[in-house]
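Pair request: fold both.
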Amino acid sequence: MTASTQRTTAGPHRLEARGLTLAYEARTVVEGLDVGIPDGRVTVIVGPNACGKSTLLRALGRLLKPVRGAVLLDGLELARMPTKRVAQRLGLLPQSPTAPEGISVADLVSRGRQPHQSWWQQWSAEDEAAVAEALERTSTAELAERSMDELSGGQRQRAWIAMALAQGTDVLLLDEPTTYLDIAHQVEVLDLVRRLNVERGRTVVAVLHDLNQAARYADHLVAMRDGRVVAEGPPGEVVTAELVREVFGLDSVVVPDPVTGTPLVVPGAPWAATVETAGTETTGAVDV
């Protein structure tokens, strides 16, 4: 079986796409795509820039209307469901979200409760408990009264995840949640996502750029290229040197991660270590 034919997802799913075609004006980005999101698992979508992975996530979160096909949530077409009902079942954290100037962490997180409120009951004890739990689980309780403007990148991202958690949905979509974060904060955010999945049973779908992080944290990996799914399944079955070459155009060696045992992609030797000039191997030194 080649990388381009690996498909290991089977059975019904709460969230799935069928025959999905997505476009921005006249430019088609995704065409005829089928994908099912495993319930209660962490699914990570990977692929090169402009392959359609964030576009797919936007469609799964109902931010982009399909040209053809449909996204289904609990067997119902997402585009036809009432907005409030969708927001009670599915939470979406977009790429690089922007908070209102001067808003506190507690106020931001409380906004996650809006889908559960009505004109006759603006705030309840249930809302209060959900916000408190979200702050506690994301280790942002001590930041509750601080302005979002004062926080580090990792702290801000934890606050945004707390808001999504307070929303109380079973499905959480995250579009590149580690963008612009240093490596320590990336690990902090991804560890938080994994804990939410394991401890609370959340179904998580995330778009990540880093294939090694995706292999470490995903139960289910979806690899895309040119608007199509090239392969999907457990990282240990999907991530191979063949797949890396097909999806990213990169020669590599795939070895076990020494800490987790998950696939670790090691790119081929750097240019300066392999190029020979006039029969003599270069050392990387450059005369100027």
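--- second member of the pair ---
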Amino acid sequence: MSSVSSFDIRDLRVGYGDRPVLDGIDLSLAPGQITAIIGANACGKSTLLRAMSRLLAPERGEVLLDGRSVHRTAPRKLAQCLGLLPQSPIAPEGITVLDLVSRGRHPHHGLFGRWTAEDDRAVAEALEATGTAALSERPVEALSGGQRQRVWIAMVLAQRTDVLLLDEPTTFLDINHQIEVLDLLTDLNRRHGTTIVMVLHDLNLAARYADRIVAIADGQIYRHGPAKEVLTTAMLHDIFGLASRIVTDPVSGKPMMIPLGRHGILSNVQDTVAPLSSDHETDQSTEGLS
């Protein structure tokens, strides 16, 4: 795999029917980086990934991958360089784990393409990397939600593309497997230069693992850049309506969000928790709460 896979999104307007979801999106993503897309529910995160992967045609604007329009690229050709894990994928009835993961190799075969030793290696490595090798003969429909999610990730990994687009890859996973999957994606990025774009709901994991964060609100890009520039109390207030504090993650040194509710707050902090207002803070505190 190469490391030259950059996205340029220009004046993108996209939606469903006559309802635009994203409008006027301009965004450049450098090759070889991990980007996390965050935002409230229904803000357009998944819609952006669908447009980037050619699944959703734009009403206006374009999405370029290495200077070429993804919407004017043949599906098989695009699938050889771009892998997609959509939200809530559906497996064919009765298919086994091994058969599903093997489908990740289909874009690399022509009409009469033969299965090769390289295909075997790609599938075996994907199963091993995701901890699903022991499940290879089981039907996908018999797996738990977390196991199924890891199998879908294995299929995308078996595709061996320069770009990975993942819509909530940690869905259904317990915290241990969430960390394992994000560590695995980081390994791919560092070893092979894989460009990774993923939608994440856990803001602290997004800050820890992503090189850049894209925050979306009301069909627009609210802000994008390194975590220290995006994960702020102002952003959390504006996008999520959440009062919070930003502290330093003692493990990664990245910013970490601490939500402030009305309960479970230390008494010496309680007096400082004010109701949300439009006059919110924009600086980041790196001090603890005690």
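Observation on the second member. The radius of gyration is 20 Å.
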